[in-house]
Structure formats: C-alpha cells, structure tokens
Amino acid sequence: MQTQITEIKYNQLLNELLESCRTHIHSVNEDLIRRSFRTSFEAHKNDYRASGEPYFLHPYAVAKIVAEEISLDDYSVAAALLHDVVEDTEISLDFIAKEFGKTVAEIVDGVTKIGGVFKGHEINQAENYRKLLLSMVRDLRVILVKFADRLHNMRTLQYMRPEKQRRIARETLEIYAPFANRFGLGKVKWELEDLSFKYLNKEAYAELAKKVSEKRNQREKYIQKFIQPLKDKLKQEGIKFEIAGRAKHLYSIYRKMIKLNTTFENIYDLLAIRIIIEDDNPNLCYTVLGIINQMYKPIDRFKDYISIPKKNNYQSLHNTVLGPEGKVVEIQIRTRKMHEIAERGVAAHWKYKEASFTSDKEMEEWVNWIRDVFETASKDEATKEILASFKMNLYQEEIYIFTPRGDLLRLPVGSTPVDFAYNIHSNIGEHCIGAKVNGKIVPLNSLLRSGDQVEIITSKNQHPNESWLQFVKTHKAKNQIRKFINRQDDKIVEQGKQIWDKKLKKLKLIFTDDDIQKLSNKLKFNSPRDFFKAIGEGELNPDEIIAPKVEKQEEKNELKIDKFVNHARQGAGGVLVEGEHKGFDIHYAKCCNPIPGDPVIGFVTIGKGITIHRKDCKNLITLAKNSPDRLVPVDWQNLKGKEFIAAISIKGEDNPGILKDVSNSITNYKDTNIYSVNINTKEGIFHGVITVYVNDLAHLEHLISRLKKVKGVFLAERMVTGKSHDR
Hints:
This protein is an alpha+beta fold and 727 residues long.
C-alpha cells in the first residue's frame, strides 16, 4: 500500500534532518540542506519503494546516516539527498553542479558510478573493481556516502525477493563490510556483517540470536558484578571514564565458532567490556590497564594497538583477564578520540584534524593501498590476479616488521623478506639477494613474524626470477616481479622478431600477420609473441620451419653411452643433434643440469623432443637400460648468448657479512648472475645452495674455486642434482 508525504510530514522530516546536522556536524549551510531536500523530494515524489513507502524516504534516511552515524559535512548530506536523482530522474549532473556546487556534484557523480559497477552482476570483472576504487581516491566522501546508502538498503532488505536478498547480502559481506573496516568504520562494518549474515544463513542467525538473547540477563548481571569494583577504583584514582558491557556481534561469534570448530557455549569472549577515557592522554589507558591487572589475573592475550595502530588507524588496548567465578572477560581500553575513530574511522579523523577531505596528507594514507593495488597494475594483468590482490588487501591480517634502524613497516600475514624489500623500495626488491632476520641469515621465502627485524642484502647483479612469484604475498612485490620478467621477455621477443625478419629477407619471403598467427597456432604456441620468444631463446629454428630438411640417416642399432660421450667438447651455448633427430626441441634434464663441458647424451622423450643428460646421470643410466634405441648423439656447439643453471652446495661459519662476501665473490667474476640463494643456519654454521647462471663447466669451476677462498667458507662443490632453467 503506497503512502504520501503530507506538508506536515515534509516539514517534520526537514526539521529533524537540520537538527541532526546542527548536533553532529561542525558547520552547517542550512540553505544548502533545504534546497537539496526540496530538489530530492520533487524529483522522487512519484516514485515508491518495494515496501510501498515514498522513494524519497530512502535518500532522506541516507542523509540522516551521513549526518548522525558517520558525521561528515553539509556537502555530504546534500549529496546523500541527491545521490539517486541523476541516475533515476531527468535531472542532470550539470544541473546539480550549477545549483549546488562542484563539490556536491562530484560526490553525487562518484556515488552514481560506484552504484553502476554492481548493476548487471558485473562485480567479477576486474575493471569494475578498478573503477570502484579509483573513483574514491579523489574524494573519500564518495565511498562514505555509498556506505550510508548500502547500510539503509540492508536495513530495508526484507521487502526484496529472496534471490535478490541473497545477492545483495553476499555483495555486502564480500565488498562493503571489508571496505568499511578498511576505512575504520567499525560500527557500520559490524551492522553490515550482521545484516548480511541474517539473509545468507537465516537458520544459523536465528539460532545464534536466540542463544545470545537467552543469556543476556545472566551476562549483564555478571558484567555489572565485574565492573562495579573497577568503577570504584577508577573513581578513587580521579580518572574520568565511561565503562559498559560491549555487545558481541552475531556474525563475529559465528565466524569464531567456524574458525575454532567449537560451539556457542565454548566461545570465551562473549563477556566483554569497554572502558573509554574522557581525557585524550593515551598514557591514562596504560594506567587503567595496570589497575585492571592488579584486580584481576591477566591472560596472555594482550594486544597494544595504541603503540602500533592498525592500518585503518584503529587504536585501543585489548586485554583479557579472569574475572569472578573463573570466567574469561575481554576488555578494550581507549580514549574518547580513539573510540570515535574506531567507530567512524576516516570521518572522525577528518573531524579531529578539521582538514579538507581532498588535501590533508594524512588522509591520503587511507587510500594509498588503492593506488598500490590498482594504479600500478599492468594493463594485461590477469583478472584473477587483480581480484586476489583486491581481496587480500581488504581482508588481510597484519604483522609488524622493523628495519635495522627501528622503523616500523606493516605487511600482510605470510609476507617474506622479498615482500619487505619491495615495500621499502622497488629497487631494493629487484636486487635482493639475501636477508637477515633478527641477525640470522634466512632463505628469501622465509615467513616473517610480528616483531622481526629484517635486513636486506642486495647485489647489483641480482634480478627477480619467476620462482619468487610462488612465495611473495604483497601485490606490490608480485607486480614488480612480473614487470621485470615481462621486460626481459620483451627483449627476447624482439630478438626473435629480428631473427625471423632477417631470415625472411634473405629468402625473399613475405609473411603477413595472419600468416604468423596461423603458423603459431599450427606449432601449438599460445600466441605469435610466444612463437617469436621461442625463436629468440633458440628453442625454435626458423630454417626448420621455412625449409625443413627431410634427410634421414640409417638407424643405428647398437648405441652405447661411452660412444656418445666422445662427441662432447668444450663450448658455450646449446647442443647440436645429428641425423634424423635434427630439429627436435631440446630440453635440459632437471635431474643433472648439464652445462657446456659436461659429457652429455640425448634421450628422445615422447612428445617433448630431446632431453640432454650428463653422462654420469643415474636417471640416464636407468633409461639407457630400458630404452637404448632412444639414445641419440649430441654435441655442444658455439652459440653466444646462452646461459645455464648450476647449483653449488656451500657450507661455512655464520659470520657477520658472510653472505655478502659470498655473493660478491660470485657476481664480481664475469658479472655472473645469481638465480637463487637458499641458506639455513644452525648453531653458528650456515649451509645451503646457491644457484647461478654459467656459460660452461670452466665458468662453474672458477666460481667454486673463488668461493673456497672466501674467509669462513669450508665447503663449496657442485651439486649433482638441482633445478633446471634455460633462458
């Protein structure tokens, strides 16, 4: 049943909104509020919501939330009143700018664009996420007004169809609630989560709500019993405070039950209180903490978010004690200012700073993560990679890491020294060769923990490699590593194109782009780029494609390993395959990592060309016994520009600077590049593996000889097995 807004009701609503603005907003342009109120009312007066209420009550409710619960400014209240008129009525954005000013128009435009991202169920498209986030970088009020809009929609979701309820609730839980948390709006975040939970899992919500309600009286009596002696003591100390029980939110309880795989009755922190100190002196929070710990036995669950605030500027002391009857009670201690920032986040910060939403440098910290994730993303970065980074940045738990100078850095849980290095500077990350954590050398893929002090060791000859992508956690690190690898690939692709073009010119042939596409498809490459890359790497011979030779030699019946060893000679580059197998794809065995100078033999691998093994490779000896007819003679040939991977096992004393001396010993010889370093230490001794790029066996032997001369190193030798890498 549709209802109308009478003139009396109109004036009542306007006066209530103006009073909310006067109470909660620092400075109010009442004329701006009145005019935007009238425009919104006239624009929507013939529209109704699913509940039958006049549609105007929705922008009105959003404006009230902006004024009372988030407490922004008069521009934001006006924009909230007008946030749907451009999209849903004939009123244009130019009209909004002319009548209400550029600031209101920009906020309305931003809120409209964010809403458009979700229309048509396109939320899974990475480009839409990009638009969603970058639209708020210019003015944070855009996302704050959108939070208010979503909050009111969730409060009135009962009038929607069940399938739409679930879609909106899922979207709210996955996107809006984490966003609210990231911007510090704790109160909005909790309500959005609980309302989403209500529609996504109605049975669990109802059961949990019932249990919480049944225990409420019992819980409140206990809380009063707990806090009364505490109140008396704080008053004796002359501390002005507010203390009360703190309601645990249903979704928070449910999530903890799932995480701990336990029941409602076993959740320990249902008993919770919050103490708000009226004085803004943070030291009083620690004074109160000391008083509490004298009265009740503390449990080792203390967290100090005052000394080290969360990334969203949340500050509070979290303490857990054993109260009367041995019950566990969770306590939060914070100042009034900290409490307002915990509840209203960036909006409260703006209020205390009395700065502009668009110019305050500290305000930029609230959105820097957006720039890190999206503005540095490459255009061809996979959608799933952008979304993964997006979700990680919304939900990530933090650890706190210290530089050697004692500076604090925040990183997501699961970060490694490489993430730390890139966080300091991309140049340090790119040349990171090793790390010391709390004074001990550790592998680059080691997981960091809160409180670790990390020192990064660099080398000008060190560069990122693809294996780093398997363990780095932060988007910045992954993005910079991919960029470096892509730059290297670009050079190889360009070299491949030049080789191909020279060959075509010499033979006076013409291949169109379409011809190249068809040829790369025929050869089972994903794209022409991969085709040219294979040529640039020497894996594909243009001669074999343009004018393949069909000469065949008679099959040799008796093939023995020693016979082929004589074909090996000193050299650098690749291998030459004779006879009918000439032109096959060449791969180097991962089990023995042959390099020029090693006696080698080829083994025909079905579907993968020829794999090159060292003569003494145990795998080859086994293969030769079972399939001697698949052995082929191979020979090293002189092709410049090829490098091979070799692994060196190293052991020595864990002295200060030893890793730097070891790396310099390698990189200062013929500008040798290091592929990876994996070092462990125990009881003053380090041991591990250094993987390097070499030209040939002589190159490797020189490196080993140099390593043996490093003070503190008492073992350096080539590893028999290791990872293979050909570039």
